[in-house]
Amino acid sequence: MEIINEASEKFRDMQDEVCEFLFGILRQLNELESEVYERSEELKKDRPEPHIMAPGEDELWDEYGERVKEILKSCCTEKLLTRGYGMSFSKHGKYSYIDGDCRVNFIMKSAKKAVVETHFNNGIDEQNKFVIINKDGKWFLDEFYYGFAIKPDKWHISNIN
Question: Which pTM was predicted?
Fold first, then answer.
């Protein structure tokens, strides 16, 4: 991972604190997503037919949503949480790129807000933007966007997971 610090001089030293906050959350989500995916694959073996859910699959989805909520409720703003979470999982976590080959831009121009943009290849060149705000000395994820390198200035608002 390469981190490019584009923060104002006054906030350059905040890079580690903000990025560790964000990456810690993303790693927790990745770990949970991988665990639930493996459990889901085991349950699918008991499907009577490919299009019919096996016993326990609905409950696994419910559990996944609750566990994602537990991770996010203390570190995300209500604004971001209302966009939804825990709606998908796959073999490789949505944010697994953070422990691989990716580029990160750290941008901070005020004490109240930081932006972390991640650029990675997942079959195509993609990018995520995380807006992180500081309320009363505590960091919160406030907004999440995704985009594609082919249109680097075009961002689409989305949910965190």
Answer: 0.93
